[in-house]
């Protein structure tokens, strides 16, 4: 067995969709990484120093520096773009200008609109409450599923346009981000997507990829301790 440590360390927790997004990029590229646990809600000072927005993930590249700000990048989108440049194969960003723009837009749409609705509207009202021994706010979660998510799903459905992938006819950062962020809802609730057939097929195919399934299984292990089953929000 080799004692060598991987260059890349992801600080955070697999419960974060943004940590799982970075992990998925590493796995798709066959790049070794490790996840070092950081509680972002009670972070140590060394982490605050490298995460100006007090968010996870932060990436460290030990080949650049083993401590301090040097060698670190905060924000999953910046991290994934850096990994792409360092490990170009297989490419996860389309080469064609328009397809690249489309992929980056879908990544941003998932990172902001989908993550905000799924995280603040469903994951947190359920999981944060249950982990504190409180009743989950199912009313808020059901309202989010019924009213906030459908227009976002409509946007993804239109951009998929019956295709297998969002941009450039191959898996890209767009597909990875949509899947990892949407799976934040799957951690606590059923996600029936029958009204959006292209997104439904895309989600099923992405969930079957080891790069998505592996980090999600690590998150589920944590979540299921407090929440044995998912809720039905319909
Ligand atoms: N745009 C950031 C978002 C990161 C983010 O929001 N992370 C959440 C965890 S999923 C966080 O650190 N939250 C801490 C907090 O809300 O105080 C990225 O893509 O890395």
Question: Can you offer a commentary on this structure?
Answer:
The protein is α+β, with helices and mostly antiparallel strands. The chain has two domains: 8-86, Glutaredoxin, CATH 3.40.30.10; 97-226, Glutathione S-transferase Yfyf (Class Pi), Chain A, domain 2. Helices cover 56% and strands 7% of the residues. It is built from eight helices and four strands. It has a four-stranded mixed β-sheet, with helices on one face. Helix 6 (173-186) packs across helix 7 (197-207). The longest helix is centred in the middle third of the chain and has 35 residues, at 97-131. It starts with 7 loop residues before the first strand and ends in an 8-residue tail after the last helix. Bound molecules: glutathione. The site of glutathione has 12 residues, from helix 1 and helix 3. Glutathione is lined by residues 16-18, 40, 54-57, 75-77, 111.
Descriptors for this entry?
234 residues, alpha+beta, Glutaredoxin, Glutathione S-transferase Yfyf (Class Pi), Chain A, domain 2, 2 domains, four-stranded mixed beta sheet, 8 helices, 7% strand, binds glutathione
Mean pLDDT across every amino acid position: 97
Number of helices: 8
Which ranges are low-confidence, i.e. pLDDT below 50, for 5 or more consecutive residues? none
The name CATH uses for the topology of the largest domain is Glutathione S-transferase Yfyf (Class Pi), Chain A, domain 2
Profile the largest sheet.
4 strands, mixed
Strand content: 5-15%
CATH secondary-structure class of the largest domain:
Mainly Alpha
Instruction: Order the strands across the largest sheet as they lie in space.
Output: 2-1-3-4
Name the hetero compounds present. Answer: glutathione
Give the N-to-C terminal Cα separation.
49 Å
Q: How does the overall form come out from the CA principal axes?
A: globular
Helix percentage range: 55-70%
Number of domains: 2
Class by helix and strand content? Answer: alpha+beta
The count of strands amounts to: 4
| H and E string | EHEHEEHHHHHH
Which value, in Å, is the CA radius of gyration? 18 Å
CATH architecture of the largest domain: Up-down Bundle
